[in-house]
Known about the structure:
Blueprint: H1 2-10, E1 21-27, H2 46-54, H3 58-65, E2 68-74, H4 79-88, E3 104-105, H5 124-130, E4 134-140, E5 159-163, H6 177-180, E6 182-183, E7 194-196, E8 201-203, H7 207-210, H8 226-240, E9 247-252, H9 264-276, H10 285-310, E10 317-323, H11 349-352, E11 356-359, E12 370-377, H12 380-389, H13 396-408, H14 422-427, E13 436-439, E14 442-445, E15 448-451, E16 454-455, H15 468-475, E17 488-489, E18 492-493, H16 500-506, E19 510-511, E20 516-519, H17 537-551, E21 561-562, H18 564-572, H19 595-611, H20 614-633
Parallel strand pairs: 1-9, 1-10, 2-12, 4-5, 4-9, 6-17
Antiparallel strand pairs: 2-11, 3-21, 5-7, 7-8, 10-11, 13-14, 14-15, 15-20, 16-19, 17-18
Helix pairs in contact: 8-10, 9-10, 18-19
The protein binds 2-acetamido-2-deoxy-beta-D-glucopyranose (NAG) (4 copies).
Signal peptide: 1-17
Organism: Cladocopium goreaui
Pfam families: Sulfatase
Amino acid sequence: xxxxxxxxxxxxxxxxxxxxxxxxxxxxxxxxxxxxxxxxxxxxxxxxxxxxxxxxxxxxxxxxxxxxxxxxxxxxxxxxxxxxxxxxxxxxxxxxxxxxxxxxxxxxxxxxxxxxxxxxxxxxxxxxxxxxxxxxxxxxxxxxxxxxxxxxxxxxxxxxxxxxxxxxxxxxxxxxxxxxxxxxxxxxxxxxxxxxxxxxxxxxxxxxxxxxxxxxxxxxxxxxxxxxxxxxxxxxxxxxxxxxxxxxxxxxxxxxxxxxxxxxxxxxxxxxxxxxxxxxxxxxxxxxxxxxxxxxxxxxxxxxxxxxxxxxxxxxxxxxxxxxxxxxxxxxxxxxxxxxxxxxxxxxxxxxxxxxxxxxxxxxxxxxxxxxxxxxxxxxxxxxxxxxxxxxxxxxxxxxxxxxxxxxxxxxxxxxxxxxxxxxxxxxxxxxxxxxxxxxxxxxxxxxxxxxxxxxxxxxxxxxxxxxxxxxxxxxxxxxxxxxxxxxxxxxxxxxxxxxxxxxxxxxxxxxxxxxxxxxxxxxxxxxxxxxxxxxxxxxxxxxxxxxxxxxxxxxxxxxxxxxxxxxxxxxxxxxxxxxxxxxxxxxxxxxxxxxxxxxxxxxxxxxxxxxxxxxxxxxxxxxxxxxxxxxxxxxxxxxxxxxxxxxxxxxxxxxx
Length: 657
Ligand SMILES: *[C@@H]1O[C@H](CO)[C@@H](O)[C@H](O)[C@H]1NC(C)=O
Ligand SMILES: *[C@@H]1O[C@H](CO)[C@@H](O)[C@H](O)[C@H]1NC(C)=O
Ligand SMILES: *[C@@H]1O[C@H](CO)[C@@H](O)[C@H](O)[C@H]1NC(C)=O
Ligand SMILES: *[C@@H]1O[C@H](CO)[C@@H](O)[C@H](O)[C@H]1NC(C)=O
């Protein structure tokens, strides 16, 4: 290696770069239209000007100006699949195309019979550990937790501080219904905030961190807000990092996922910024909350970058930023993908083409400030990072498991199908000219995209969304409600409207049937369906054929049912979620519980066992479904802030179980 570096130097190349530090930033449910750079070329209508005043992301914009905007970066349409894809280096369709309950288990498949990434796959952090990196994860995981191998620790992160589920409450760190969108096997009684390091593994036991004591604080950065805790952890990792090794820091925000909760001071801050930019006050509660949360994320990113500079690490740092999917335009998701079509939960650009960029001092000077229009899949970071780190991207562990899986007749694990993209980004070359499998319903074959079947939330939203008409629309039962699979009770979908036709109407669902065909290069907002145009007949049928072929490779093993055993383990661990299969040696010893606590734990455990028993569960679930459907139809998930408007509900109703 040394002589190779010397050879390059004598040839007039700079010395072989050290392995870069990597700061991987993953935002949650971040809408296309909620990032400042995507508002820059907006028109000059009053609404667009208002939109520009509201969307404030100065730190992100500066990183993009100093880096490369990834204009065609694709993910899966929902979170857990995208997160599984990043960590495993497989397209989401080849590792985990569904959001399943973290408590799922299929007793017959000890490799893939759980939520998230199959147990025997090698994570990107494991690979980077092999290459000499120090590896840390902060924030949301959502790629499985059933066994110790499924956790961040099992996937190669030396430390982690965060949560396992899709979401939790930003203040209490609990799994209440309005935070997770499901009634889980543990009746939403568990907390979800855990950590591990070299000497400890288990729930976060710091009472301050778990409290909502600071919720009413007017101070600018209340210390019990979840994102504050994450940010402090990130800054601590950077400050304490021994720069003789490269750092891999995965900063996985909860922001800007529901529940929409922001510290008060940040609501005032965004109000002031909008005013200073010449805008009118927000007329919609959720749009204001979403903007305040976005501002918080942006500022936290700014602080992390500052810390890297202070530590003299920035010049050799590669920053990668993406959202896990497009913004949710249903209420109370409150994102805007303007001017793109669609939302989280569908295959339109608004659902799968995400805000993304690379930045940091590692970006060659001549590429800074450029836009890269080559296709990148979120699975490609695995290959890109292993390539930069100088290790191969083969997954020997998965290969080894396949021998056994084949014997048992169980689904085989896909090899890593990540495309290393660094050279493509640097040389401005499209690394994915071939068909790319987006989901079982969609395929991209640049510049065409085929979208099939039912697609919820197939709408375009304007520059100031959601707004008072959205509130009225919800009040009038015209949607947009969350996508049909978003809300679950004990793993079963809960219908949000009384009939399937009503569900479709209120979720703004359209049916593409055998295929809508769009040209996403010439028509990036997907207004023109080319499917009926005879000129495109052969492209259409070719893509339909390709999708059919590709779907034969869809990885969708039986992940089993919600298991109350997961609740028992959680109850033991301070009522906090964590691994529940072969997890005996995973947890650090817990403090002794007093009699009262043991008694309350016993009662809760017995209650959960009863509710999860065959006899009780069915009637219980169907009763909850009926109640839930009704409640959803009458829920005020947003609020118009224009005082003159009547019929505004006073309370932001929260449907808690
Ligand atoms: C690991 O975490 C525990 C619990 O928070 C803490 O007490 C301990 O100091 C940490 N150890 C290291 C090495 O950071
Ligand atoms: C508990 O968390 C708070 C912040 O939430 C922090 O200031 C304090 O140092 C922590 N205590 C311990 C013992 O780690
Ligand atoms: C999968 O991983 C687990 C845990 O490391 C191991 O015990 C098991 O043997 C592996 N299974 C296969 C089929 O390789
Ligand atoms: C307000 O919301 C509606 C949908 O509820 C949307 O169609 C419209 O474009 C939005 N208006 C603006 C200015 O964004």
